[in-house]
């Protein structure tokens, strides 16, 4: 070894030592892949899948210098990367060392019904002390994740990444990859968080408008407009600051299990193409993700190849995944900045050429406000009201539209109006007009001066969707009483519905979802794909989770090809707990078919 090499080695060693001592407080909780900064090289995929063992237990962990009680998988949060290979069989032994039942659900995976892992729907759950073996053929590839489907365990760290290497080469190239799993951590008992929301739905929402805001509105909009705006919000029992139910007041946002202070770092060599597998494994938090100085090329959404699209930022709903490729240059660092939707905090990572480097961290942007469009009100200065009846409420909102003029330009077209059914006492708001919002970048990103990913950008590469007509159409409304923290579909909580939504085996169902509430809901169907009708026809993308914006009307098509009972729910954990959950039953396959 030459002297030069020795000195480099020694320098490298000191750099690593420095980084690890900085991270020392976090080593106890972070999984191996979070501490290994060199990424995973491509084309070194494991061909044989060894059997995987996962051990679930309760542990005291250190997050940002503070002790918390977590549910760990093999001693870490998130759990280890479960890496499978398309075409092989997954064999995963899960041992429960908790003092309560647990489960693992493989999010986005097509598998036999009894392997889906939803207690009470597809299996009884895993009892304390028991080991349950999941065994299923792996029929797809891409970035996914896994998590508990028992109570609110997911909020305590019971989740991890699931990566499936494809049988055939992917239609894009890269040199190295990293998982970036974004989550929200609270030191509170998640059951208490839920109890607080039930008691006071805005418990964590400290970003209320103030008297100062009121007087500023009056000076800007005039007294009449301000008052009618306030009255409209009051009648809807909502507040324009309802962006997130649970906020940075209790949450520490994590990247690969590490708080911003630990600054998770992935190393690159200048010119390398880096694949980042973003997974939003949060209980309740949407993120806006950007890497200042780098364009991101989105190549997969929910594990599915899409036509590459270059963006500066994307919003990632709870439970979605996006794979992007970046091409960092120079001997420098870049900040991976994942800002929570309500801008109450952020998760953070760094791409750098050496350990210990960091780049400037952007300031949190101004918190967004809900708009009249989110409330499902027509905006008569932009909407063509021809052929639409005006009612009393329309007249009232006339005076308030100027306030939101910049948003108006980008808001989607009105595509529907609400029928007479207001969905009963469990629903306080009704989107009077429903819009096509698939071309909108999401709350708070309407006015940014760079390119943001929108749902209409997603064009499938893998599958050409045949134009077979749906056999049946179902309309489902997303409903809620925000004041009492009740969440439901069509005004009925899961505990109130009589039975599953029946699908016939082999039929194609067109499911139209209408969001009557003023929040985004990431809607997830187990066991089958939802093909999002985003106007791309035979290139409409497949998704496992679709974020439905406030007052939005959108349609998905589902081929009912998986017999059994499957969960269908909002992936905001506390919305699901509060009742935004249904079971879809696909009738057993007929003799001689399939
Ligand atoms: Cu929801």
Descriptive report:
By secondary structure, the protein is of the alpha+beta class. Strands 1, 10, 11, 13, 15, 16 and 18 form a seven-stranded mixed β-sheet that branches. A six-stranded mixed β-sheet has the order 24-23-26-31-28-29. α4 (211-221) packs across α5 (223-235). The longest helix is centred in the N-terminal third of the chain and has 25 residues, at 3-27. The protein is globular, with a radius of gyration of 24 Å. Residues 1-22 and 384-409 have low confidence and may be disordered. The chain binds copper (II) ion. The site of copper (II) ion has 6 residues, from loops.
Helix share, percent:
10-25%
Oligomer: single chain
Distance between the termini: 63 Å
In this entry the ligands are: copper (II) ion
Helix-strand makeup class: alpha+beta
Which regions have little confidence, pLDDT < 50, spanning 5+ residues?
1-22, 384-409
Q: Enumerate how many helices there are, as a single number.
A: 8
Strand content: 25-35%
- The shape, in one word, is globular
How confident overall, as mean pLDDT?
86
